[in-house]
What does this fold into?
Amino acid sequence: MRNSFGFFIIILAIPSLLAISTLLLKEVRFADAQQQSIEEKIVMPEIKTPLPVVMTDRDGNIFSEEYVNFYEPYALNDIPFFMQQLFLMNEDEEFYNHVGFDVSAITRAFVTNSQSDDVQQGGSTITQQLVRMRYLTTEKSYERKITELFYAYELEQMHEKEEILQMYLNEMYFSNLVYGVGGAAKYYFQKDLPQLSKAEMAFLAAIPNNPSLYNPLKNFDHTKKRQELLLDGLVRTEVITQQEADAIKAETITLNVKEKTQKHPMYATYVLEEFKWLIAEQEGFEKQLQSAQGDAKKAIEDRLQARVTELLQSGVTIHTALDQQRHAQDVAQMDAVLAKYGELQGAGALVDNVKREIVSLYGGQHYKKHDFNRAYQAVRQPGSAFKPLAVYGPYIDQTGAYASQTINAKPICIGTFCPENYGGAVYGNTSMKHAFRWSYNTAALRLFYNTGIDTSFSYLKKFHFQSLVEEDENYVASLGGLTYGVTPIEMADAYASFSDGSYTRAHAIRTVKNKNGELLYEWPQTREQVWSPHTATQIRLMLADVVANGTAEGVYSTDGYVGAKTGTTNRFNDYWLAGLSTNYSVAVWIGHDKPTNMWRIEKSKIHHQLFNILIN
It folds into this structure.
């Protein structure tokens, strides 16, 4: 009888409320401009709450968590009944009896609000609160309130009561970017929801009523007082006895707040970039981008980014090859070396020769999360460090030459291009090993000419130098002169091919799995044979000679074999050192973000120091 009378009152009141604003019709007709009746279906968008991205190291330990909101959904059957009762009895006792709104409660609120100039919220069911969270603004107006009723009614037609309660419990805001009862349990107590005590459940249930006022990290006492009020509500509704309530209130609440794991930002930011490359390759975006230009290319890039965002927000775990202890030591030691030289920057990468995995990398001193990561973003001229890849490797592979054979290092011009050797020195015939050791430019150009530009670049194109362009296919490339350049990760990646002659792109990501632990992506394991065994052997022999007798003196490895090649660009703007040991390949660059002549620190061999840190 009470409900019927209340329904009659609210029906009489609705016409006067409709006259308040012309905005109401726009609200209720949003699903279809042609719809003239509010009785037709309101189409509601699907709501997706972003889930965390978790990164693990090679041993499965979490080292980074990325999330916009902290969220851990539960099925209703897995949410303790006591937690459900806390909200049902205190927020909406008639939840299982109403059609989305409680007419008698609305009537009481309407009468109360009509006596005040200030429009108050009141009489909201759980369904209405869910509608407000999902689809409407928090504006306090009669127009919005009436729209809320229609939405609530429609939501009840679309879903069972249990589904609505589950959505509500999983989507409530618990302050501090935490959503849902599961997320709150994990964030505030670092427990799974079913592991919470009744006191802890009631404490969490106090927060959503006013997440600012009841934020337990700032207003713990306020939250505790409201917890006790909620327990009193359960006593009133005879869910628990007064004795039980007193015992629960007496339990000490100790927060154990979960801080986001944010270790190794240099590596983590690279992993997110590599994730994008992985999706591009696996889902066909990379091939599309290779043939697209202008607006078409921009559209493909936008679709790729949207896909990456969608996957990241779906809650993935990215398993990586990171060696946390080694990486932490690398970063600390390389930071210490560079700190002695002011604003000098450096970058490097360490690749496992067998698995072709990026074990560690260095993005620059003073690095903070999302800074410019020089390991994969600093595209710089490689100088002579490029010669083994562009000149000597292709020449030996095509001719079967040996490091000991004699070659011509005399002055040479091809058209107007007449390179000089370091210090303007002039040489005659010499062994290939000797020319390689001291990086004779005249010998490199002559070998490059004999091999041919097209043939030499057919090798370079097998690697993943993303900034190589068609304009680079000229004779200057024989000396490492490129339109844009290469990155340390790309150089270490390519040098790893000299370990056994094979190539597959080095990667940090091992697998990507969804929130259920199912495999989504992994890099292909196939390898291409780039160099013959003879070529790889001769290059390693000459790299070792550079360490023993040439420009890479001072480089060492506890790993047995070690070989390396230095590179210096015009005006001493860049210093490179790339090479490999038995188990690892390394490339290191030092320079300034704004190119600066570094002649005065050449003899300090800073890049040698960084190389030794990474490879050992």
